[in-house]
Amino acid sequence: MIHIVNDFISSAASFYGGGGYGHALAGVHSTGLLDLLGSVLAQQAKPSPVPLGEGSPASELLPLPKIVMIRGLTLGAVGFLLGALVGRPVINWLRDRGIGKSIRVEGPATHQVKTGTPTMGGLIFLIPLVFLIAIFMDLLLYKSLLLPLGIVISCGILGGVDDYMSTIGHDRGGMTARFKMAWLLVIGTVAACILYFPLDLHNMNVPFVGPIYIGIFYIPVAIFLIAGTANAVNFTDGLDSLAGGTTAIAFVSYGIIAYLQHQPQIVYLCFAVVGVLLAFLWFNAYPAQAIMGDAGALTLGALLAVCALQTGQWLLLPLVGIVFVAETVAVMLQVLYFKLTGGKRLFKMAPLHHHFEMIGWSETQVTMRFWMVSMVAGMLGVALALL
After folding, report:
1. Contact in structure between 302 and 226 (CB atoms under 8 Å)
2. What is d(CA 113, CA 102) in angstroms, rounded to the nearest whole number?
3. Cβ atoms of 225 and 308 closer than 8 Å
4. Has this prediction a pTM greater than 0.85?
């Protein structure tokens, strides 16, 4: 299949002509880089004998073959190339249809310049991610990847419809929060039942202790994690590169955890997500040319939760995703404090990233510092997974 991608890039290079973008694509094609990547992706690792999320602690397992990590990283590189390839056409398509961001009047004044920036930019990474999962991730061998694929498609559609409704129409209000949450709960319920029944997951891994059986309670926990993380990432998507960068860091963490736990399919998935997200960040870097919107944010959050559940290390998700937790808690505390005090505010503005903007941090300072916190939390999460 890699020859299809190679031909596609060659055609794209011709389409963009002599511009810098076209020269870059032509360079990728002429170097034979994709041929090399294709030879790596053609190699398959044997499926792990360890059930998803139910194995021994990582410290007690022999390392997976190096080809697993090589393929995972290669998938990330191919994902970046594909995302970079579709980025500009997606942005032009969104702009031509007037699918642009509207800024709240009560939001930071510095954000008003972002009005009209194409939203639903999550398509930049969703399109290549679906392609990578369907073509290069051995679905016949790793049938458990059908669940993440379903999450990407279902949450992408849900978020895309909301993005479209919020930018095109009479009131531009988008879906109501309750309606959107109801659909997230439906998606989460289906996913939780798949995790519990066909995939036979019913444990939580506790650092220093090991797997603990929780039985049928696994289902409501999984529903809460999937819907909650989807909303948490959506709250975080308020500054250029913030949600994309922090979720990429979280997926790297779970990719490493999956490698340590003999779960090659999750390794492939996580690093593919990282690759396509880096391509999106190319266009989302300040000042953003596109914003991921609900199509991207809801999908990334739900997919991250599913990866955490499939590794069995979902108890570490609040730590690995500490920025998402902080953003969500800040919103909840702000609303509660406002109601209890009759209109007073606990933070200058919620979600939390706006509070730091209001106290004088620049947008890039907030983003970079939140990235740093995410990196430290991710390192601690991997360390705890080894215990």
Report:
1. yes
2. 10
3. yes
4. yes
Find the radius of gyration of the CA atoms of the chain.
21
CA dist., res. 210 & res. 56, Å (int) = 8
Q: What is the pLDDT of residues 20-67, one digit of tens each?
A: 555 555 555 555 555 556 555 665 555 544 445 554 455 556 667 899
**Helix pair 2-16, 33-41: axis angle to 10 deg:** 160
Residues across the chain: 387
Handedness of CA 335, 290, 132, 39 (dihedral sign): negative
Q: Which residue has the tokens 């106290």?
A: 359
Helix (H) or strand (E) holding 177: helix 177-196
DSSP for 38-85, please give it. HHHHT--PPPPSSPTTTS--GGGSPPPPHHHHHHHHHHHHHHHHHHHH
Q: Which two tokens stand for residue 66?
A: 């190096």
Residue 15 burial by Cβ neighbours in a 10 Å radius (0-12, 13-18, 19+)? exposed
What are the pLDDT digits (tens) for 160-183?
A: 999 998 887 545 667 888 999 999
Query: Which residues lie below 8 Å from residue 357, measured CB to CB, with a gap of 6+?
Result: 108, 110, 239, 349, 363, 366
Euclidean distance between CA atoms 372 and 70, whole angstroms: 26
* Phi and psi torsions of 328, nearest 5°: -70, -45
